[in-house]
Write a structure and sequence with these properties.
Length: 129
C-alpha cells in the first residue's frame, strides 16, 4: 500500500510539474529547440548518467537547505547546470518552449526521470551511512 501511494504521489507530482511547464507556451524559444535536439541526439546511457548526477546534486541541495547549510544549496544548483546534468522538469520546459514533440520524448523523459530518482536514492543511502 505504501509503495502504491508513493508511486501515485510521484506520478501526480510529475503531472503537476508538466502542467506548470505548459506555461512555457507563452514563451516559445528557438534556442530551446536547438538545445533540445542536442539532448535528444545524446545516447540514452549518457543521458542516464547525467540524470543520476542531477539527482545527486538536487537531493544534496534540498538536504543542505533543510539543515540550514544554504551555501551548499547555492553551489549545488549551479553545479548541476554547469555539469550539463539532466533534470526532468527542466527538460519539460525545454520541450514545451521548443514546441517540439516526438515519440522519442517518451523514452528520453523516462530515462531522465528514473536517473533523477536513482541519483536521489544513492545520495539518500550514502547520507544514511
Amino acid at each position: 500500500v505504501y509503495m502504491k501511494k508513493n508511486i501515485f504521489g510521484y506520478i501526480l507530482f510529475i503531472l503537476g510539474n508538466l502542467i506548470g511547464t505548459c506555461l512555457m507556451f507563452i514563451f516559445p524559444n528557438p534556442i530551446a529547440y536547438t538545445i533540445l535536439l542536442t539532448k535528444l541526439t545524446t545516447p540514452l546511457y549518457i543521458i542516464f548518467i547525467k540524470s543520476i548526477i542531477c539527482g545527486l546534486l538536487i537531493y544534496c541541495s534540498v538536504e543542505a537547505y533543510k539543515e540550514n547549510k544554504i551555501f551548499i544549496t547555492f553551489i549545488s544548483i549551479p553545479a548541476f547546470i554547469l555539469a550539463g546534468a539532466e533534470h526532468s522538469i527542466a527538460n519539460f520546459c525545454f520541450i514545451i518552449a521548443a514546441r517540439y514533440f516526438s515519440w522519442y520524448l517518451i523514452p528520453f523523459s523516462l530515462v531522465v526521470i528514473i536517473g533523477n530518482a536513482v541519483g536521489s536514492i544513492i545520495f539518500h543511502k550514502i547520507k544514511r551511512l
